[in-house]
């Protein structure tokens, strides 16, 4: 074809009886993806020129065909520019199939038409393509963000595939039931950093069988908790390690008898700080020291996917070190201490006083987003667990003043700082409002009332009427609706969702709408989603249902709907 952007609606006049609804959303059921092998070469600059901001990719998709067909249909966003010829190889016979046509279909689908039916076997499809990162407001798929830090323009490339945006950066079978493994190679400039959610394997692992290591992590429930104890009583000082599955419900721990991982431990011991490495491949292990040390800190730089359970005495010393010299531990180490303290206290292994101590240290001294984010995430979890208990009022009365240790209340609403500080401030405000800070809620409602009605009715041409920063909008919308008696405010946000073309603003509006404590408003939104000419976007449906389910008032409502209208919801 001369263009890969032409959308054709006619059916192919082929001899087989394979049928597919051309205007449908659901893929045919006869293809099961097995493996994606993706190579991406990323090019970018701080300007917005398309010829300097793009990525080239080559893709091999291994799949099983469960019934004969002459058509292969998968997801691909029309923005993808297919380069060269697509190839299809039968892995059993080595025969290449002849492709006579390829084209985009409606609803982000792509169709390959073959000259004849191919049998039910495994195949390898190879595709090359390129694309750009979209506009600055495009925060889905593989996107690019420019931000400022310390007066310097910086660039971040990131991905957001949920709920249906994996098809934007590469062709795929983008449905939840179609699981497959990935092999990913990313080529990027030498002066940039690539981050993933699986750590690189250290060289010390080279003597450990890969299969054994991987299986022990894949087949276990949850993640390991490593109990660490400095042993001073023996003639030979040592560190005792013991692993078990981490569970908040301790009553279930006795049932997890076979949970065992191979854990790569990297620890520091002090007085004079020394570092050592140890492999724990059994339930218990011992590392011998050459002398006594006063404390131990494991999971150095928070690289390991496990939690450490320190003795009370050891945890107190770590807090004392932070109180004396807060930068004595790295940002990552401080973040790890926050998680260890909160998780062990929420589990019941440590007192809540430990939480108070680390919270006070962080809110007084911390400057980095990563540690603030860890603290605030855990505070929100604590709030969720205690919200309907008598202790919640006492906890919120204690933590609310601490959250304004670093930044005053007025400073928190000042959004003129560098990007990382803006993020910290907005996260703090979100937790303050979540913990029912009266001052925070009143300020949110005040700022909402300052937004002219014209903005909600027609946001794009009136964008300058809304002076709230992007970081503040989600907070103001959510906690105004959650704490407002004015029904008109809810309808303002509904109009904003209907009329906005900005994905981030629509998401802000939905978070506000689904935070309502009035069931009739949640039901109005729910019913709107099922209308034949609904203004709610199809890709937002399950996101809305999830948000309603997370709302304390909406949880019972949605559960009743889920039970009584299961097939109606499933058919969406």
UniProtKB/TrEMBL annotation:
GO terms for cellular component: cytoplasm; extracellular space; membrane. Residues 295-567 form the ERAP1-like C-terminal domain. One of its GO terms (biological process) is proteolysis. SUPFAM superfamilies: Leukotriene A4 hydrolase N-terminal domain (SSF63737). Residues 33-207 form the Aminopeptidase N-like N-terminal domain. It comes from the Eukaryota. GO terms for molecular function: metalloaminopeptidase activity; peptide binding; zinc ion binding. Belongs to the peptidase M1 family. This is Aminopeptidase N. It comes from Brachionus calyciflorus.
């Amino acid at each position: 074809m001369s263009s890969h952007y032409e959308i054709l609606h006619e059916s192919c006049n082929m001899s087989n009886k394979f049928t597919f609804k051309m205007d449908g959303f659901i893929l045919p059921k006869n293809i099961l993806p097995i493996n994606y092998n993706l190579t991406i070469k990323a090019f970018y600059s701080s300007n917005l020129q398309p010829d300097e901001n793009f990525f080239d990719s080559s893709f091999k998709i291994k799949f099983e065909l469960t019934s004969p067909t002459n058509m292969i249909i998968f997801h691909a966003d029309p923005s993808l520019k297919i380069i060269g010829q697509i190839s299809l190889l039968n892995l059993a016979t080595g025969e290449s199939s002849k492709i006579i046509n390829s084209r985009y279909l409606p609803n982000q689908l792509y169709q390959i038409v073959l000259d004849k039916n191919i049998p039910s076997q495994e195949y390898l499809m190879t595709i090359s393509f390129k694309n750009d990162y979209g506009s600055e407001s495009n925060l889905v798929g593989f996107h690019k963000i420019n931000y400022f830090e310390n007066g310097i323009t910086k660039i971040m490339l990131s991905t957001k595939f949920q709920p249906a945006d994996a098809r934007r950066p590469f062709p795929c079978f983008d449905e939840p039931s179609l699981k497959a493994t990935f092999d990913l190679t990313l080529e990027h400039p030498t002066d940039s950093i690539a981050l993933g959610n699986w750590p690189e394997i250290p060289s010390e692992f080279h003597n450990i069988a890969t299969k054994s290591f991987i299986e022990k992590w894949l087949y276990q429930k949850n993640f390991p908790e490593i109990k660490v104890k400095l042993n001073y009583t023996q003639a030979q000082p040592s560190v005792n390690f013991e692993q078990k599955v981490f569970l908040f419900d301790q009553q279930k721990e006795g049932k997890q008898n076979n949970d065992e991982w191979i854990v790569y431990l990297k620890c520091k011991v002090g007085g004079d700080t020394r570092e050592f490495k140890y492999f724990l491949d059994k339930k218990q292990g011992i590392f011998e020291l050459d002398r006594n040390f006063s404390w131990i800190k494991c999971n150095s730089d928070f690289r390991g996917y496990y939690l450490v359970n320190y003795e009370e005495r050891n945890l107190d010393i770590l807090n004392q070190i932070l109180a004396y010299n807060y930068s004595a531990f790295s940002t990552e180490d401080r973040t790890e201490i926050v998680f260890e303290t909160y998780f062990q206290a929420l589990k019941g292994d440590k007192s809540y006083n430990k939480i108070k101590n680390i919270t006070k240290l962080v809110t007084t001294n911390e400057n980095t987003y990563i540690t603030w984010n860890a603290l605030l995430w855990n505070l929100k979890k604590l709030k969720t667990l205690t919200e309907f208990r008598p202790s919640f009022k006492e906890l919120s009365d204690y933590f609310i003043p601490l959250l304004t240790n670093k930044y005053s209340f007025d400073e928190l609403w000042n959004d003129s700082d560098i990007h990382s500080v803006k993020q910290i401030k907005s996260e703090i405000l979100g937790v303050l409002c979540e913990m029912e800070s009266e001052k925070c809620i009143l300020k949110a409602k005040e700022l909402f009332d300052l937004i002219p009605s014209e903005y909600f009715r027609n946001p794009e041409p009136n964008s300058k009427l809304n002076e709230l920063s992007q970081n503040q909008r989600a907070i103001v919308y959510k906690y105004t609706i959650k704490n407002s008696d004015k029904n008109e405010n809810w309808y303002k946000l509904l109009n904003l969702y209907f009329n906005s073309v900005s994905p981030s603003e629509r998401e802000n509006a939905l978070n506000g709408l689904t935070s309502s404590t009035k069931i009739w408003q949640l039901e109005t939104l729910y019913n709107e989603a099922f209308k034949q000419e609904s203004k709610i976007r199809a890709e937002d449906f399950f996101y809305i249902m999830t948000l309603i389910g997370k709302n304390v008032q909406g949880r019972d409502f949605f559960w009743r709907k889920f039970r009584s209208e299961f097939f109606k919801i499933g058919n969406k």
